[in-house]
Structures are given as structure tokens and as C-alpha cells.
Design a protein that fits this description.
Elements (H helix, E strand, L loop, with lengths): L1 E5 L3 H13 L3 H4 L5 E5 L10 E10 L2 H7 L15 E2 L4 E8 L11 E4 L15 H4 L33 E5 L3 E3 L6 H19 L7 E5 L3 H12 L5 E6 L2 H9 L4 E4 L6 H9 L3 E3 L7 E3 L2 E6 L4 H9 L1 E9 L12 H5 L3 E4 L5 E4 L2 E4 H10 L9 E6 L3 H9 L1 H4 L3 E5 L1
Parallel strand pairs: 9-10, 9-14, 10-11, 14-15, 15-16, 19-20
Antiparallel strand pairs: 1-2, 1-4, 3-5, 3-7, 3-20, 5-6, 6-8, 12-13, 17-18
Helix pairs in contact: 5-6, 5-11
């Protein structure tokens, strides 16, 4: 089968970090980059508790693009094993089951929780995080009977969704009910990332919430808040017209188009948040007041600065945008306004209607109940062989009206 793989080597990495800054498309066009389109063997079942899945759709995540662009911090490299097939968002059908697998059959339509925590690694004594259901912050992601990797799509033993097949431990696999189509299925993983951030930092009905960024995760934050029947006021900062339309469709009360580095959007945002704008001696305007909770969904310097300055005194900033090594962040408001800055990674276990459920199970339940339909977010489909066209589309997502792109391996 063909697969898009990340093949690390020092020469490839240095090539990307130097010339890639001048010519970004070299990250996927050059044979010297870390991205390789290769013919590889199907991944084998690590043991009899695993299943093989034929991928129907493999989502292209912003974190995948950060990987290709070599924007990830080197601090994550111990939690990967090379070379690995990229792709952690997947919907597909089971094509093979291990002898000890229970409750799953060949032909079942499924989604995958890609986190490779203690259960998937065959560790009989789970770490403290896994015992309490916080699999995404498992402390043993380099141990066990599979190679190091935070998740499927960063582990050489599992394959990934940017290929025809991947393998997953039975504890990672959830069957899709008939009410949920494949397009919603491929959105369950990104929706669960947003849902986890919202459920762990649940707004009150009387709160004002600011969502910085209206890409897939930003829209999913809005959708999650409304699917949970939270009636708070939601203000969204948006970059493209398609993002604005979808933010309003999923329940935003106000959407403010971003205006580059200018101040017009600052004043509009402050007005929407009922905040004051003060002029410093030099530098960008200072905000007094702001949102009760800010969900930062981009992960760059500008978005993180906006998230911090638009949070009101005593407010909370939730970092969903997978920010890495960033320059020029002004942390003054964190201590001056005593902000609570909270990270959020992937998903875990949540309290939902009196039950303890995996975040992805909650997402499936909300879709099954008709509380959310995310299929309109999938705007572009590409055969895996057309990956260069896919990446060009994502780079020009405003002109292409692209929200979410998926591969059809």
C-alpha cells in the first residue's frame, strides 16, 4: 500500500529547517524533505488484542501540517518512533481481528482513539493518569509492547490514517452507530479535542466566551458548547469568510473578522466583550475587562497574545492550539490580571449525564442524539496520491474555501 510517512534524519531535518523557511512548499515537494510518499507493507497486529482497520477517510489535522513544516518542538521527539505513517484522524472498517479481541467483528464501522497509553501498550499496572481516565497525559508512552509514540500517526508500529490500513488496540476502537455517517465519523476525533477542552473548562450560561481562531477546532468549540446546551455568549475571531459563515451556523453570537496586525478588530472585539481599550505609551492597545473564558485555537504568537489580553481579570485561557516555541508573547496580563492559563491536549474521560465516559464516546452520543452534525466542515476530499494538491489547498484555504480536508486512501 502507499503511505505518507515522516522519515527523520539529520540531513533531511536541516534541509527543511533552512530552505523550508524560504520555500515552504519544499516540505512536501522535495525528495530531500522528511515527508515521503512510499509503498510499504500493511502494519501487522502487534498481538492478539489488536485489530486492523481499512481507512475510509483520514483527516488532515493542523498538527499534521505543523509536523510537515517542522514547527513542532524537539521536546516531543522522544514520544515518536521513526519512520512513521502520518494521520491520527480516522474512520474505517475492521478488516482483521486478533484472537483475543472481544466485541468487535470484521466489517464493523469504527473510529479510533489514537492515544497510545498504558492499555494499548499492554502494561498491566497503569500509570496514575490512566487510572483516573486521563489517557492523553499517560506517563508511559515510551514503554510496553509497541514503539514510542503519543498516538497512532506518530508510532512506527501502528501505521496511520494517511494510508490504506492502520492497526489499533481493541481498547482504542469504538463502533459507529448507523445514525452517524462517515463524514461525521472522521470529525469525531477533532470534535473530541474541542469537547474535552470545553467539558474540562465548562462555561456558565451567564459567561462570555471568546474563541480565538475559527478553523476546525475553533468551530468545534462553538459546536461543543451548543451541543452541551450551554447558553453563554460566544464571540469568535475569524480569518476567512467560510469560517465566519460556519461559526454563525454552529451558534456563535458574534463573529469578528481579523484585520492583520491592525487595531480595527481590537476595538470591535473589545466592544463585543464590553471591555475598555486604553492606549499605552507604545505598543498595541491595552484591554481592561474581556471574556470570562478564552479558548485559543490557533497556536501562534498573535493568537496567544490575543487570548491573554482579551481575558478579563480572574478569567481563564484554555490553550487548544498546540502552541510550540513562540516568540514575543507578552505575559504581563497573566500576573496583572491573575489569569488561569490551562492547557488541553486530546481527550480523556468525562462526566456526562451521570456517567463516566470517554470523550469520544460523548461525541458519538451527541451526534447520535442529533445535537451536532459536523459533516459540512469536510469541504475537500483527496486521493492519497494527490497529497501535493491537498497541501496547496490547505495553504490557500481562504481562496479555496477550505475548512477540513480528508484523504481517501
Amino acid at each position: 500500500m502507499h503511505a505518507l510517512r515522516f522519515q527523520y534524519s539529520i540531513p533531511r531535518y536541516l534541509f527543511g529547517k533552512t530552505l523550508g523557511r524560504l520555500f515552504p512548499s519544499l516540505h512536501w515537494k522535495s525528495g530531500l524533505s522528511c515527508l515521503r510518499f512510499q509503498n510499504v507493507d500493511d502494519p501487522a497486529l502487534p498481538n492478539d488484542q489488536w485489530v486492523k482497520i481499512r481507512v475510509t477517510y483520514g483527516g488532515i489535522c493542523g498538527s499534521d501540517m505543523n509536523l510537515i513544516y517542522l514547527h513542532d518542538s524537539p521536546s516531543t521527539s522522544p514520544f515518536a518512533s521513526f519512520p512513521f505513517t502520518i494521520g491520527h484522524e480516522a474512520v474505517g472498517k475492521i478488516s482483521e481481528t486478533g484472537a483475543a479481541v472481544t466485541g468487535l467483528r470484521i466489517g464493523d464501522r469504527v473510529v479510533v482513539d489514537p492515544i497510545l497509553s498504558c492499555a494499548a501498550r499492554g502494561l498491566p499496572d497503569p500509570c496514575e493518569a490512566c487510572r483516573r481516565g486521563d489517557d492523553s497525559i499517560c506517563s508511559r508512552m515510551v514503554d510496553g509492547n509497541v514503539a514510542p509514540g503519543l498516538l497512532i500517526g506518530a508510532c512506527r508500529d501502528t501505521g496511520g490514517s494517511w494510508s490504506a490500513y492502520l492497526v489499533a488496540h481493541q481498547s482504542q476502537v469504538m463502533k459507529l452507530p448507523d445514525e452517524i455517517d462517515d463524514l461525521n465519523g472522521v470529525m469525531i476525533e477533532p470534535f473530541s479535542c474541542a469537547l474535552h477542552g470545553v467539558m474540562r473548562n465548562r462555561p456558565r450560561n451567564e459567561d462570555t466566551v471568546l474563541v480565538v481562531g475559527a478553523g476546525t477546532i475553533g468551530i468545534c468549540v462553538v459546536a461543543a458548547i451548543r451541543a452541551l446546551d450551554i447558553a453563554c455568549n460566544i464571540v469568535v475571531l475569524s480569518k476567512y469568510d467560510i469560517q465566519t459563515r460556519l461559526a454563525l451556523r454552529y451558534g456563535a453570537d458574534k463573529v469578528i473578522p481579523l484585520c492583520g496586525k491592525g487595531h480595527r478588530s481590537t476595538y470591535e472585539t473589545a466592544e463585543a466583550l464590553k471591555a475598555r481599550v486604553l492606549k499605552p505609551v507604545i505598543g498595541p492597545p491595552v484591554i481592561v475587562g474581556g471574556a470570562d473564558i478564552v479558548f485559543e485555537c490557533v497556536g501562534n504568537s498573535h493568537s496567544v497574545n490575543d487570548a491573554l489580553r482579551f481575558a478579563q481579570s480572574g478569567g481563564k485561557v484554555v490553550l487548544l492550539g498546540l502552541a510550540g516555541i513562540l516568540d514575543r508573547i507578552d505575559w504581563t496580563t497573566v500576573w496583572l490580571n491573575e489569569l488561569d492559563v490551562k492547557g488541553s491536549f486530546a481527550y480523556g474521560t468525562e462526566e456526562f449525564h451521570g456517567r463516566r465516559m470517554k470523550t469520544m464516546e460523548v461525541a458519538i452520543e451527541l451526534m447520535k442524539l442529533g445535537k451536532v452534525d459536523l459533516s459540512p466542515l469536510v469541504t475537500h476530499h483527496f486521493p492519497l496520491a494527490n497529497y501535493k494538491e491537498a497541501f496547496v489547498t490547505l495553504v490557500n484555504k481562504g481562496k479555496k474555501a477550505c475548512m477540513k480536508a480528508v484523504f481517501e486512501p
